[in-house]
Design a protein that fits this description.
The complex is a heterodimer. By secondary structure, chain A is mostly helical. Chain A has helices at residues 3-41, 50-65, 68-74, 76-83, 89-113, 117-125, 130-163, 171-181, 186-214. Chain B has 11 helices and 14 strands. In chain B, helix 3 packs across helix 4. The chains are: A mainly alpha, B alpha/beta.
Chain lengths: 217, 333
C-alpha cells in the first residue's frame, strides 16, 4: 500500500473517532434530559404527565423511524444553517446528533427503568424534591447501566457515521465507499471495515470495563 | 401529646372501572413517644394506611394531621419539610446501591441542606448507635439483610424525625435478626423519644415492643387498645386468629382446651407444675409460645382440658388464685 493511502486511512480513523465521539457527546447532552422526561412523566413516574409523555414519545418515535440516509438528506438545509456546509466531518455531526438523540433518549429511559422503585419512594419519603431525586438518585443509581448504554450508542453512531460517507461525509466510511466501492479497490474497503471492527471492539471493551468498575451492586 | 391524628381516612384505588377500597374510614390518634403496632393479614390495608401517613399514597378523603398540620392542605415545599420529620423504613430496605453506607445515611441531611462535614459526623454517630460504624465505607451489596435494615434505620433517623414509620421492616429477616432489629427500635424509642409506628403481620412483633396496637381487617380498624389488653382478651374474630397463631391453633383437634396467657408473671415461678400438684391432675400441653423478656414470662399456652368437670373447676380456681388469665376453647367450649 502506498504511503499516501496510509495517510488517508490515518486521517479516516481520526475523522471517524472525532465524528463518533463528538456526536455521542451531543446526543447524550440532549438525550439524557429527554430520557429523564420520558421516565418521570410516565405513569408511576414522579411527575406523571400524560400529555408531555405522549408528545415527547411521538417525536422520539418519529425521528427513530426515519432511515438515517433519508434523514441525512432531508435535513441538509438545517445542517448548512448550523455548521455552514454540508460536506465533511462537521456536517456529518449534525444529522448524527439528530438521529442519535431519540435513540439515546430511549436508552436512558430504559436504564432508569431498571432502578428499584422502592429506592425512589424512599427518597420521596425523606422529603426530596423532584430535582434532587433526578440528580441524586436516578442518574447516580443508573450510572453503570447508562455507561453500558453509552457503549451501545457509540457503536451505533459509528455505524451511522460510516453511512454518511455516501453523501460527502468524512471518515472511514467515506474511504470505503470512495475507494472500495466507486474505484473497485476491494482491498481498501476490507481494510476500512477491519478498522471499524477494531474500533467498535475497543469501545465495547472500554465501556464494559468502566461499567463494571463503577457498579457497586 | 398527639403526633398523628387520622380522621375518617379512606383510600380507594381505581383500576379499569374497578374500585378497591384499601382503607375505609380509619380514625386513629397516635401519642408522642409511644410504639404503635398496626397488625393485620396481607391485604388488610395496613401498608396503604402507613403510606398515607407521609402521603406516599394520597388519601381519597379524610385528614392526616401531623403535629397539628393537615398534610393534605399544605404546599409541596411544606410537605417536603414535614417529611424530613417523618422517618420511614421498608421491608426491602431501599438503600441507594451506588452509595456507600455513610453516604446513604448522609443523603437525607444532604437534601435538607446540611453541610457535608456536619452531615458526615452525624451519620457516623448514627452508625455507631446502630452498631455499624466499621462498615461506613462498605456498599449495601456487601451487607446482610439485618445490617441493611440497620443502615436504613440510621438513615431514617438522620434528620431527627418525630416519627419513624416501619412498613413490614422485619418481614424479610430471620427470627433472630428480627428480634435484634426490634430491640434496636425499642432502644431508639427510649433514648430519642421517637414515636414509632410499626406495620406487621406478626403478633410477635407487636408483643415484643409495642405499647398500643390497632388490628386491621378489610381496610378498617376492628380493634385497638393497649397491647396487653388486646393480647389477653382479644374480642374481634380476626384478633383471636392473630393472637392464637397457627402453631397454637388447636380448634381442629376436636379437643377442649384452655388458653392460659402469661402477661409478665415471674418467669421463675413454675405455674404449670404447681397446677399439676395442686389440682392433682395431669395436663396435656397442646402448644406453647412463651418468651422470657427480662425475667418476666410473656406468651400463651394451650392445655387440653380433662373430661372431669370438677377437675376443670379446680384448675380454673387455681389459675384465678394466681391471677393468670385464661380462656376456654374447643368443640364444646
Amino acid at each position: 500500500m502506498s504511503e499516501q493511502m496510509l495517510e488517508i486511512l490515518k486521517n479516516g480513523i481520526w475523522e471517524t473517532l472525532y465524528m463518533t465521539v463528538v456526536s455521542t457527546a451531543f446526543s447524550y447532552l440532549f438525550g439524557i434530559p429527554l430520557g429523564v422526561v420520558l421516565y418521570i412523566t410516565d405513569k408511576k413516574g414522579i411527575c406523571q404527565n400524560k400529555i408531555i409523555n405522549f408528545v415527547v414519545g411521538i417525536i422520539v418515535n418519529m425521528i427513530r423511524s426515519v432511515p438515517f440516509l433519508i434523514l441525512l438528506v432531508a435535513i441538509l438545509p438545517f445542517t448548512r444553517f448550523i455548521v455552514g456546509t454540508t460536506i465533511g466531518s462537521n456536517a456529518t455531526i449534525v444529522p448524527l446528533v439528530v438521529a442519535a438523540t431519540p435513540f439515546v433518549a430511549r436508552m436512558v429511559e430504559s436504564s432508569l427503568k431498571e432502578i428499584d422503585f422502592g429506592v425512589i419512594e424512599a427518597a420521596k419519603a425523606m422529603g426530596s424534591s423532584v430535582g434532587q431525586i433526578i440528580f441524586k438518585v436516578l442518574l447516580p443509581e443508573a450510572k453503570p447501566s447508562l455507561l453500558l448504554g453509552g457503549t451501545i450508542s457509540l457503536a451505533t453512531i459509528l455505524g451511522y457515521s460510516a453511512m454518511a460517507g455516501f453523501v460527502g461525509g468524512g471518515g472511514l466510511g467515506a474511504i470505503a465507499i470512495n475507494y472500495g466501492y466507486y474505484r473497485y479497490q476491494g482491498e481498501i474497503m476490507w481494510i476500512t471495515v477491519a478498522l471499524l471492527v477494531v474500533i467498535v471492539q475497543l469501545f465495547q471493551e472500554i465501556g464494559l470495563h468502566l461499567a463494571r468498575r463503577v457498579d457497586k451492586r | 401529646m398527639i403526633v398523628y391524628q387520622l380522621i375518617s381516612l379512606s383510600k380507594e384505588f381505581r383500576e379499569k372501572g374497578n374500585t378497591v377500597e384499601a382503607v375505609k374510614n380509619v380514625n386513629l390518634n397516635i401519642e408522642k413517644g409511644k410504639i404503635y403496632g398496626i397488625i393485620g393479614f396481607s391485604g388488610a390495608g395496613k401498608s396503604t394506611l402507613v403510606r398515607c401517613l407521609n402521603l406516599l399514597e394520597v388519601p381519597t378523603s379524610g385528614k392526616v394531621i401531623f403535629n397539628g398540620k393537615n398534610l393534605l392542605n399544605i404546599s409541596p415545599a411544606e410537605l417536603r419539610k414535614c417529611r424530613q420529620k417523618i422517618g420511614m423504613i421498608f421491608q426491602s430496605f431501599n438503600l441507594l446501591s451506588q452509595r456507600n453506607v455513610v453516604d446513604n445515611v448522609c443523603y437525607p441531611l444532604e437534601i435538607a441542606g446540611v453541610k457535608r462535614k456536619e452531615a458526615k459526623q452525624k451519620a457516623l454517630e448514627l452508625l455507631e448507635m446502630v452498631g455499624l460504624k466499621e462498615k461506613a465505607k462498605s456498599y449495601p451489596s456487601q451487607l446482610s439483610g439485618g445490617q441493611k435494615q440497620r443502615v436504613a434505620i440510621a438513615r431514617a433517623l438522620a434528620t431527627s424525625p418525630d416519627v419513624l414509620l416501619c412498613d413490614e421492616a422485619t418481614s424479610a429477616l430471620d427470627p433472630i435478626t428480627t428480634t435484634s432489629i426490634l430491640e434496636l427500635l425499642k432502644e431508639i424509642n427510649q433514648k430519642l423519644g421517637v414515636t414509632i409506628i410499626i406495620i406487621t403481620h406478626e403478633m410477635k412483633v407487636v408483643e415484643l415492643i409495642c405499647d398500643h396496637v390497632a388490628v386491621m381487617s378489610e381496610g378498617t380498624v376492628v380493634e385497638q387498645g393497649e397491647v396487653k389488653e388486646i393480647f389477653v382478651n382479644p374480642k374481634a374474630e380476626i384478633t383471636k386468629k392473630l393472637v392464637l397463631n397457627k402453631a397454637l391453633d388447636a380448634s381442629d383437634t376436636g379437643r377442649n382446651f384452655l388458653r392460659i396467657v402469661f402477661e409478665g408473671q415471674s418467669a421463675f415461678e413454675p405455674i404449670l407444675s404447681s397446677l399439676v400438684l395442686e389440682c392433682n391432675t395431669m395436663v396435656n400441653i397442646l402448644g406453647a409460645n412463651t418468651e422470657n423478656i427480662g425475667g418476666k414470662a410473656y406468651g400463651q399456652m394451650l392445655i387440653e382440658l380433662p373430661k372431669d368437670s370438677s377437675v376443670v373447676n379446680k384448675i380454673k380456681k387455681f389459675l384465678d388464685s394466681k391471677s393468670v388469665y385464661y380462656e376456654e376453647g374447643g368443640i364444646a367450649g
